Amino acid sequence: MFDFSILFPSLLNGLTTGAVYALVALGLTLIYGVLHIINFAHGAALMLALYGVYVLRTRFGIDPYLALPVMVAGMFVFGYALQRVVINRASHGKDENILLVTLGLSIVMENAALLVFKSDTRSIETPYTLTTVAIGPAMIALPKIVAFFGSLVVAGVLLWVVQRTDLGRAIRAVAKEKQGARLMGIDVAHVYALSYGIGLACLGAAACFLLPAFYVNPQVGSGFVLVSFTIVVLGGMGSFAGALLGGFLVGIVESLGGLFLGDSLGQVGIYLIFIAVLLFRPQGLFGDRV
Amino acid sequence: MTTNNVSTSNRRRFIQQSAAAGAITLGFPVVGGAQPAAIKIGVLHPVTGALAYSGQQCREGALMAIEDVNKAGGIKSLGGAKLDALLGDAQSQPQVGAAEVEKMNEAGVAAVLGAYASAICLATTQAAAKSNLPHVVDVGVADTIVERGLKNTFRFGPGYGACARVAMANLFALNAAAGKPAKTVMIIHEESLFGTGTGTLLARELPGFGFTVVEVVKHANPTRDFNNIVLRMKALNPDVVIPANYYNEYALLVRTMQQQKVAPKAIYSVLGGAASSYKFVKEFPDAANGIIDCNHWFNPKDKRALELRKRVEAKGLFFTYEIFNTYTAMMYLADALGRARSTERGAVIEALSSSTFADHFMPYGATKMANGQNTGAQPLMTQVLGGDIKVVVPREYRQADASFPMKG
Question: Do residues B246 and B51 make contact, with C-beta atoms less than 8 angstroms apart?
């Protein structure tokens, strides 16, 4: 139906989109793996991060890619404080409370953005926004290529932190056995807040990769959050490898599905795979914990 | 004599001043008591959710119209009664819109104005009909809104049927004048009532005008990535691309086309969300350049429209169709309240129905309603030329000649 010159760019497009999905999902899966809660504020936090990149660009002239360290650090501090000051206190140690608190936070964040930035859709212009790179027959937007490799690098760093550092070991210990970790002298509340902060820091990075070719408005997060939830469940709740592979899989299925079935119907492929995984491998593709 | 005169003069002055003082003393309570109660108008838009930008623009237009009516002395036939907006948020969801109408009805509004999106308008007009509450539709272009026989529903602007017909006739004329360079068309529309209805109509009727519709693509709201659609476009290589969608998706689509270096002979929008938007032209001048749109537009030669544009821009807003459509729809409603001389619902509906309202800056002429639709309402064809939006068709409103096709 479509020849290689169309299929190949579509595949690359899916891969590049999937990398950003994976990055957003990595944060979500880390928070789930450690705190055992679905962070309903994930989409809203991504939206705030996108506004952060927007403000840095329009007010201070900082390039979105150069803003990466600022955004990652800023979102980490924001996430840490949010977990420590609001979520932890308001939840009183009950998981169902945490769910409601994050849901409430997402509503507060969206309305705060509506108040400050209005409902206006905003985007930024950079010298490379419309630059494309020819890869074989495909013309891929430069921001998408940067997003692809950038997401991989950030995911690699995150994996290294979790696997190779004391902090990572503490995170894994808390994820596996909270009481045991506490008895070993690990400050569980601190690790919870750190994990939430790292989860949001992933969104800070994702926002820097997204905005050069995308837009931001107060509702923008909702478009990503459902896809991220799907990826996390598809890959296995709390699994890093699952989130990465799930992100790419969803990106490619969405892209090729859109090409063959049209944009509206194209998304059906994601959910067919999702249902198949739930039926035949309910723990997800990589059902282990962090 | 002199003394007498002075005394007479003093007496007269005393009587005059006493009378004036009495009038003032007595007059104030009388004036206060005669001040008619404000007329509540339900102003209902999706000011949060996916359609928040458009909804807030609409609200701004409605409030500016109310401000102008009140400044000009209110509804004169009702003793100068002021209009009082009762604001509602449909949250971009039809069922919420319908619930808001119920609340407004209970709050005793004289009429409802709203609710921007077709799907929301379908729900709100029906909810209002249950209480015989007059409902003026400000944008809502789906023709079914005024085709269900609801006596309370009135649309001042054109529906998508009228817009699509005008667009097709003009595309045919422009193409013929240029030696028929365009033969194939690709339609890209959003998936709700407005986009689907417009897309279906165009796909059905365009072959009658000699065009081959090579593809009709429906997309979701929001769509995060248009690369696939643009790749399909690349494969099909249509002469004309017709988008019918909301602002965000329109802007993303055109930018992706620019990125992928897809340049059809024309981007010819029908009710394109960003095609005739000063915001789009300002933010993406290169992407916007040359785009033709058949859309709601004001008479560019009417000073009142230009003055309103200045006021809107002074507020830091863009003068978009949401603002001027809602502004004039509110003016139409205010005029009808004046004609009705009452806020009784039957009288207001009758006044809206028989309105000949002509004191506006839209290219509609005197209002003539037939089954709730203003039959004189028409879209204008605009094109982005030299960083500005110019009317290119019809002749009486033309500011510049159309540039078609864009590529030789």
Answer: yes
Rounded to whole angstroms, the Cα distance separating B235 from A83 reads 49
Chain A residues in contact with B261 (beta carbon < 8 A): 132, 139
Determine, for residues B231 and A10 on separate chains, whether the beta-carbon distance falls below 8 Å: yes
Q: Do B259 and A125 touch (CB under 8 A)?
A: no
Q: How confident is the model at residue B52 (pLDDT cuts 50, 70, 90)?
A: confident
Q: Can you list the domains of chain A with their CATH numbers?
A: 4-122+132-280 (1.10.3470)
Distance CA A121, CA A101 (A): 27
pTM: 0.78
Inform me whether the pLDDT recorded for B31 exceeds 50: no
**B4: confidence class by pLDDT, cuts 50, 70, 90:** very low
What are the extents of the domains in chain B?
Answer: 1-35, 39-158+303-376, 161-295+381-397
d(C-alpha B395, C-alpha B296), whole Å:
16
Q: Could A255 and B227 be called an inter-chain contact, meaning their C-beta atoms sit closer than 8 Å? A: yes
In this structure, whether the domain defined by B161-295+381-397 belongs to CATH 3.30.70.330 is answered with no
* Pairwise CB contact (< 8 Å): A219 & B52: yes
* Shortest Cα distance, chain A CAs vs residue B226, angstroms: 9
Query: What are the residues of chain B with a beta carbon less than 8 Å away from any beta carbon of chain A?
Result: 47-50, 52-53, 55-56, 191, 217-220, 222-225, 227-229, 231-232, 234-235, 247-248, 251-252, 255, 258-261, 283
DSSP state of B139: S
- Report ipTM for this prediction: 0.70
Low-confidence ranges of chain A (pLDDT < 50): 289-290
